[in-house]
Write a structure and sequence with these properties.
- By secondary structure, the protein is mainly α.
- 68% of the residues lie in helices and 4% in strands.
- It has a two-stranded antiparallel ribbon.
- It is globular.
- The N and C termini lie far apart (46 Å).
Length: 180
Amino acid sequence: MILKINFKYILLTAVAVFLSFELHELAHFFTGEYLGNKMAMTLNSGYPVNGFYLEEWQYSVVSAAGPLFTILQALIFYFLLKKNNNYYLYPWLLIPFFLRFSAMVLSFRNPNDEARISTYLGLGKFTLPLLVSIFLFFLVFKVNQKYSYTKRFNLFSVLLIIFFYSAIILTDKYFHIRLL
């Protein structure tokens, strides 16, 4: 199978990056709302409007909701790709790995979801981020192994993800939303 990086693949990658981000943040948002907090969100964060959660433990639960959704996304697309080699679905698997790995790297400066949970559980800042990243990399690796996706295809896919990821991060400050 020849892998074509065409306009359709680029457009689908852009949609996948945007929806992966937003569904991850909506998982935080709706979990916080379900727990009784008034929540707001940007393109890259969900947070309580008043600046704190009603109960301290809720911070970890809300923090876990986004990565759990992202892992679920990766598993769904892993099994879809294992069943049917439709490389247009590949960004939906690669993005979760990229997002959680980059979150782990950024945790050196500012702890992200898994780092906060890992610290809260007394496991050290990088235990959960590393385990999640390894698991998601394993899924990506297995699909690449099965279908022999080229290094060039993977590199271009990652560069597309970085481009669209950067666009979301750079425009994040302009989008503050209170959904409910």
